[in-house]
Amino acid sequence: MVRVRCRECFMCIQSAPDDWACTFLTGIHEKPFARTRPIGRSLFGRMPATDLDQIVSLCKRRGFVYQSAEIYGGFRSTYDYGPLGSLLLRNVKEAWVRSMVQQRDDVVLIDAAILGPPQVWQASGHLANFSDPLVDCTNCKQRFREDKLDDPTTCPSCGAKDSFTPAREFNLMFKTQAGPVEGAGSDAYLRPETAQGMFTNFGQVLQTARKKPPFGIAQVGKSFRNEITPQNWIFRTREFEQMELEFFVPPSESADWYEYWCNARLQWYVDHGIPDDMLMLRPHDDDELSHYSAGTSDVEFKFPWGFDELEGIAQRTDFDLKAHSEASGERLDYFDPQTNERYVPYVIEPAAGATRTMAAFLLAAYDEDEINGETRVVLRLHPRLAPYKVAVLPLSKKDTLTPLAQKVRAMLADRYMVDYDETQNIGKRYRRQDEIGTPLAVTIDFDSLEDDAVTVRDRDTTEQVRVPISELLATVSGRLGF
Ligand code: ATP
Q1: pLDDT of residue 367
Q2: CB-ligand 1 contact for 236 (6 Å cutoff)
Q3: Which of 34, 84, 80 is nearest to 361 (CA)?
Q4: Based on the domain organization, do 353 and 394 belong to the same domain?
């Protein structure tokens, strides 16, 4: 028996015999795929956003994500992360680094350059192969990525039939020039992935970090792709952030580590609050695999338009180290003193998008419930991801409460990102904090001046408890889990 989900209708998930076929929609879908289920929460009782617009407008209204250069009409497919979005994005990246680097003793972090010379991209194969098939509609003159068209015979913009030009390959790398003199010698590229920085630095890291395979090099940072059809808000943009690990292993251990990383990466999303019903692991079909890949699986998330990729986990064999070694003339291998063997390690690469993942966390966290007959919007973000961990809310703006409220704020802010808000009535302030996902609110009232205690309110249950200020830090840390 395997856990399967049908790739046609995305609905059937069940334990099934190996020859199972989906009958959910119009007939039998022939290619259900095996699905590893993470251990975690189900969606029961939640109402995640079903429409991207719900999240896009909340994010604009509350200061998570803005259209870039909006005062000039906006710059297509580029976004700015506002006061809350920049914190959320930073927390997504920190949660990744925490689990991929901090909590392990076999992974180190680097921060490589974004600008690179053509030699790197020549050796990696990006100059020759990093392209998408581009088609033009001869009727409305719009351009599309052929492999992403729902119906390759119909233009999704104007509806014209058979109006597409033959596909031509379009390289996705942004080319620029380094230095004041134009010419072939000054060509440079913005990296389209962070991965190559880990391969080109392999030798130096091996020497300086005193690691041996199996070990990994991780990196978080910006990447740039001149996408033909950027779409779906921050899902596919031309400038985005990635979180990638290159995990170097003895060739004979490659298959086991691949399985390990597939499961570990799927579980990471569940551990950070995405209900397991909204995730799946989809092994690539043979015709999807890159030429060097011995196997790739995508972690997919149930976006409003269907399941789509959050992260790819690839077995890249020794392709990259060998390619850079041949092109640079540098030795990029490992000598094992125990076996007296020299070998080029194989690589398992879990490659995730930070900005795309942030969209998924927001969509999954969105919920609506009813409090005292009123609909409330609440972002049930995992406390590690929430932009603010605690809101400090003096009941009134009166000067009498401010000194104590500020003292409580300073005490909490030493350890956590805190929002201080003294405007509007307390009900409205709670709603605002619910909507931006703040897990805890601390209210200072006039009794606080007498009893040195405050009220702590829980975002998810709206339960309120009275806590002495002397125990506040311990209570907050106990409830947040850190
Ligand atoms: P896609 O098929 O969606 O174009 P990909 O398979 O080319 O993605 P990878 O090269 O494997 O993507 O990159 C790893 C991760 O980086 C992706 O899973 C995704 O989360 C993120 N990513 C890639 N391209 C973009 C983009 N244009 N905008 C935002 N995130 C991206």
Answers
A1: 95
A2: yes
A3: 84
A4: no
Note whether 427 and 376 are within 8 A (CB).
no
Indicate whether residue 366 lines ligand 1 (CB < 6 A). no
Four-residue CA torsion sign, 407, 410, 412, 414:
negative
Is 356 close to ligand 1, i.e. is its CB under 6 Å away? yes
Residue whose CA is closest, atom 3 of ligand 1? 309
Element (H, E) at 358: helix 354-365
Quote the pLDDT of residue 159. Answer: 92
Alpha carbons within 13 angstroms on the beta-carbon side of residue 454 total 27
Same domain, 98 and 206: yes
Candidates 193, 242, 300: which one to mutate for ligand 1, based on the most atoms within 8 Å of Cβ?
242
pLDDT at 185: 84
Q: Indicate whether residue 310 lines ligand 1 (CB < 6 A).
A: yes
402 and 263 both lie in a single domain: no
245 Cβ below 6 A of ligand 1: no
In a domain, 164, yes or no: no
State the Cα–Cα distance between residues 438 and 380, nearest whole angstrom: 8
Is position 327 within any domain?
A: yes
Whether the CB of 196 sits within 6 Å of ligand 1: no
In the three-class reduction of DSSP (H, G, I as helix; E, B as strand; rest coil), residue 38 is classed as coil
- Give nearest CA residue, ligand 1 atom 25: 236
- Count the alpha carbons within 13 Å of 88 in the hemisphere toward its beta carbon: 29
Which residue, by CA, sits nearest to atom 8 of ligand 1? 309
> What CATH number should be reported for the domain holding residue 447?
3.40.50.800
Task: Give the per-residue pLDDT at 399.
Answer: 83
Q: Is the CB of 353 under 6 A from ligand 1?
A: yes
18 and 76 share one domain: no
Same domain for 209 and 336: yes
Atom 7 of ligand 1, nearest CA residue: 312
Q: How far is the CA of 378 from the centre of ligand 1 (A)?
A: 29
- Work out the angle at residue 333's Cα, subtended by the Cα atoms of residues 330 and 335, and round it to the nearest 5 degrees: 125
The domain in which residue 423 lies consists of 388-480
Average pLDDT per 10 consecutive residues for the chain, totaling 482 residues: 41 46 40 47 68 92 95 92 98 98 98 97 94 91 88 91 91 93 87 98 96 97 94 94 98 96 96 95 87 89 96 97 98 95 98 98 95 92 98 92 97 98 93 97 97 97 97 98 97
Residue to probe by mutation, ligand 1, list 292, 309, 311, 361, most atoms within 8 Å of CB: 309
Query: How far apart (Å, rounded) are the C-alpha atoms in residues 330 and 319?
Result: 15
Place of tokens 């990006």: 126
Question: What is the structure's pLDDT at 119?
Answer: 97
- Tally of residues, the chain: 482
CA 270, CA 35: separation in Å to the nearest integer? 15
